[in-house]
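Form P-L/3: holo structure prediction, ligand flavin mononucleotide.
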Amino acid sequence: MGNHLAEMTAFELIRALAHDAVVGVVVTDTMVASPGPVILYANKAFGRLVGRDLGDILGQTPRFMQGRETRRETLDAFHRSLAAGERFHGYLTNYRGDGSKYRAEIDCRPLRTADGRIENFVAFEREVLRRIGRPAGSAAGRYEPASVSNDSLTAALRSLAIFEHA
Ligand SMILES: Cc1cc2nc3c(=O)[nH]c(=O)nc-3n(C[C@H](O)[C@H](O)[C@H](O)COP(=O)(O)O)c2cc1C
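OUTPUT (holo model):
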């Protein structure tokens, strides 16, 4: 039996793993400046999160989710991370297809080839809600996932260090 896994690109592997995942997964190309990054893949959970058909998402830049209450400072930090080839983990106000807004937790990483070249970006995304009656320390303390029904999912994400703070 050949080692097919070794022949897969990181993008192909993520696409296979993300297909039925309940956390939003989106993969883009590496063009950081507008009109990039361009969405090459999004799973069904991402379509549900952003309230749009997958056909309307592919080929777009993730900026289409931004609106009046999306903080420019956070987008600047996001842009700097992408340009530096670093992970971005943060919280953004985004808008669904129907115009309703939600708070997204985004964990975005570069996918590198063995020789270190960035091939794609991947982001894991989920809706979070503002915690009520908690002191606002770090951003992580201020928000909690909107849906925590699936404990095995939470454990799986934690074991992959997705949504974990460095
Ligand atoms: C994989 C990936 C997923 C992204 N997802 C979102 C998102 O859900 N919402 C959002 O507002 N921006 C998202 N972005 C960020 C924007 O595409 C863009 O990089 C950001 O607006 C900062 O760049 P700008 O200052 O040129 O606008 C994502 C970027 C990447 C690479």
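COMMENT: The domain at 4-159 is CATH 3.30.450.20 (Beta-Lactamase).
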